[in-house]
Write the structure tokens for this entry.
Amino acid sequence: MALRALIFDVDGTLAETEEIHRLAFNRAFAEDGLPWHWDVERYRDLLAVTGGRERIRHFVAMTPGVVDPGDDRIARLHQRKNALYGETVRAGACPLRPGVADLVRAARAAGLRLAIATTTSRSNVEALLAATFPDELPDLFDPIVCGEDVAAKKPHPEAYLQALARLGLPPAACLAFEDSKNGLAAARAAGLATIVTPGLYTAGERFDGAAAVLPDLTAFDLASHGRSTE
């Protein structure tokens, strides 16, 4: 079946966002008077849990001596983290990963549809896209499935299943792009062939079942994937 759409993850795939998220979490904690600090190694472990609120809850549950701040405070912390993240991204501190912009434009020129399937917050996605594709919005990616749209986050396939349903296309007509084992598992469970470009926090993970594992998308040849790999 001919390739008709590309479906992208966001964090770590379109851009190396995770370090900006980590710093924003720490700023939100400090502003709220909490003595929490997530260093790189701790954050790498916490990324096994998808979703910012879920990540905070996991940290609280798994860290001896940490008092549960309650769901309302966790929600406020997450909202503030997203605001801090958005400020940083809008300031131009988070460029696209190598090859992403060229691939997106080549796909558009080839008549392919572009979609996003992520379980990060919509505000985070909008901030990144506005900063990195300012002249090509609002319809560059359609559909955009975000964390608010799903009941189950990656590695559950719901985000990808929703994207496929909104595209009105079968998995064999689409190709997914991910950076993590959780994302790969979600895409594969939805039946999608998947290209993985490991990021800063996922470089040591295993990507069994990926159609290809590349250092970045400068090495990706769209012409060679004109037909599905499934």
About this structure: The chain has a mean pLDDT of 95. The two ends are 9 Å apart (CA to CA). Strands lie at 5-8, 113-117, 144-145, 174-178, 193-196, 212-213. Helices lie at 18-31, 40-46, 52-62, 71-90, 100-109, 122-132, 158-167, 181-189.
